[in-house]
Amino acid sequence: MALPQSLRVSVTPPELELIASQQLIEIIPLISMERTAFISGAYGPLRPPIKAKIPLWMAVNLKLKKKCHIVAPDWLNVDYLQARLTHETSQPSFSDLPFRFAEVAKVILDVASDDLENPDNIRSLLKDLREARQAKSRDGIKTLDHSELSLPNLCSMEINEIRPFFVQSMSVLTQLVRNPVADPLRLNP
Question: Which one, of 162, 170, 87, 85, lies nearest residue 122 by Cα?
Answer without folding.
Answer: 85
